[in-house]
Specification:
The structure is a homotetramer of 210-residue chains. Chain A is mostly helical and 210 residues long. The first copy, chain A, is 78% helix and 0% strand. The structure holds a DNA duplex (21 and 21 nucleotides).
DNA sequence: AATGAATGAGCCTTCATTCAT
DNA sequence: TATGAATGAAGGCTCATTCAT
């Protein structure tokens, strides 16, 4: 039975890989089930053996990237959980993620689906993964509040949310308006983001940084 | 010929009104050209006399809201251009705008279309309106830098971009995760936003605010 | 505007004709919307301009035959409303109808859809037409009861229903088992039906049983 | 090898039971081979080991009910073969059968498949069972003709066919139009059927008409 | 200018059946 | 024998767009 599961995972993986390729190329809405089947080298019907429909494929792909993002954040904190080193590590991890998977970064930022009780497993997993990411960052912030490196008047979770919004916004803006930023400010995308991260850092240090 | 133009504007306006109504009700993708025509009381073909297609209608509607947003920002600064009063005024104007036009706030925040040279007039107009909004805020920031109320190490325009990302992110997050915020933090959407605005203000004041 | 309606009727008529041809050839379920479009010489999309979907086409075709059947019954009674001449005339009209439109005869016999209040117009029309047929026959029976030609202990409407079931059954049986009847009884379909009609006639001429 | 046959019968039986359950619940066309396999606890492919396809399963189920019906008729005549007691017993058996298996009653009534020479075994069996039912009733009628209780001018087999059509029609009508009958005639389904059976009885007791 | 009419190109999904193991 | 895996062939329906009038 182990083999069977492995084969199923293999096939699901192939399909998801094809889907990812196409989603990145043409966008999710513009990718048809036909496209995915062709790209994956399966017949269209076969996709329906491994997934209940296009939506499940989309959600599975999103979940994969949610997990990837969580790993990126966890990795960043593992390598450097000092302050503000860990902060920058997270920022850079997010920026790198957005570079690699622009489509999913935007989706994840905009993800709202608070799962109803009856939600599909996969949506619940997406939600939970989002929670785990928040918890990781919250833990980091909370630890440094305790150590006196951070002085803010609000709960760590709230700070995480606000920072998340700020950092996410800066990264997205940097990516979307790169040419504009270059032209109007003479900055590279990376410089712009770096300044933005510094800028936002002030919100939790309470004084000019660096 | 003045009359002819006026008639054209009248017809375009009717169509756009219908489109706005439907877009807000059902979403853009879910609104068909048929729907718009019916709602506007024109034949479907007639829409194509006044617009080149659905996309142009969508863009025109977005432009309208861009302009609305510009007016909201301008109005906020006109009523209060002190510091940090003007800052909060802008924040609140943005929050109110998002309440009134959630669909378009998200689009505007995510707007990337840096017009290519061959871009349609309407996309250029959207772009220009975005610029004007930035200029308004930039002017406000620059003035208070000059007055010594703000001490930041980066150009005003850059600060505007970063703030814009932060404030926009906070507002969007507050709206999309309202139930979550309520449950996890015990805050109303408004309280969360207020804290976020305060938080972000630190980035430009250089010390704990208020 | 009269012209427009006429054109619409023309197109609907073409589509229905094509549908009727195919339904008779291959059966209703085996006929696809594609088939109908091709046969009618329209694009598939165009069918959806004139009908809301396959079901409406099917119902419209059924309605047409319901009306045809009503006319056949009315015609039979108009030509001969004596007793039992009218009875045989109706029987023969039904038999002829079944010969011409076997598919629809069976559908009509099995028709049950008592329309809900919200039913589509066309289903209501089908129902009403069925009622009208019953009323026609009921009127005939009732008249001859009054004249003393028929002595039955039940209301005319009830007799109509029972006769309808009997005559319909005989006609269907005769058609479906024609070879069997030929082989086992040495009767032609027509002879078998004639005997059946005679047989059933006893139910309304004979005296109370038992 | 006896064991092997027994096993085969066991498996076929399980599959047919599952099919019967599903057909009654959802209708034949709405039941997929997948459904049957799942319900029976076999893999879909295994069904194809025991049956040549969905159609054979359907036919086998129909055959089962044909046999059931034959047994019902035989049972009715065994309990009461007097006149007209046997007649009513048969009528009631048929009505009870239709109550229990509406789906199959209608199919059996409409069954036409006069088996071609190349027909599948199962279709031949269905046909033969139908014949046996006819023979049972024919024997009953013939016996009472001999005893003088029935006076008709046609062969017993023919009378059986016509009665069959009439009785079947009355039962089907009663079931399908129950609400209508209630509303328009103030009769229960049972009363309506009873009147119908009485009515049809006249065809074989009353004297020659005309 | 205004529109009635027509449609091409898709879209997601279903299901009975086959076949290698 | 039993089955997991794969699929060919449809199927009903939608919608933005075009064009002759």
């Amino acid at each position: 039975m182990k083999n069977k599961e492995r084969l199923t995972e293999f096939n699901r993986g192939n399909i998801l890989s094809a889907a990812k390729r196409l989603f990145s190329e043409k966008g999710i809405a513009q990718t048809t089930v036909d496209d995915i089947a062709k790209e994956a080298g399966y017949s269209k019907s076969t996709l329906y053996v491994y997934f209940s429909g296009k939506e499940e494929i989309v959600n599975a792909v999103i979940l994969e990237h949610f997990i990837l993002l969580k790993q990126a954040v966890a990795g960043a904190l593992q390598e450097n959980n000092g302050f503000p080193g860990g902060y920058y590590a997270i920022c850079n991890a997010l920026a790198a993620f957005r570079d690699a998977y622009p489509l999913y970064f935007d989706i994840i930022l905009g993800e709202l689906a608070i799962p109803k009780d009856e939600a599909e497993t996969i949506l619940v997993q997406i939600y939970n993964t989002g929670e785990e990411i928040n918890t990781l960052i919250e833990g980091y912030i909370a630890a440094h509040i305790r150590q006196g490196n951070i002085r803010i008047g609000i709960p760590a979770l709230q700070a995480v949310f606000i920072l998340w919004a700020g950092i996410g916004g800066v990264i997205t803006l940097a990516a979307k308006k790169e040419p504009y930023i270059q032209k109007a400010m003479g900055l590279t995308k990376e410089q712009f983001m770096q300044d933005g991260f510094d800028f936002l850092l002030k919100t939790i240090t309470g004084r000019e940084t660096l």
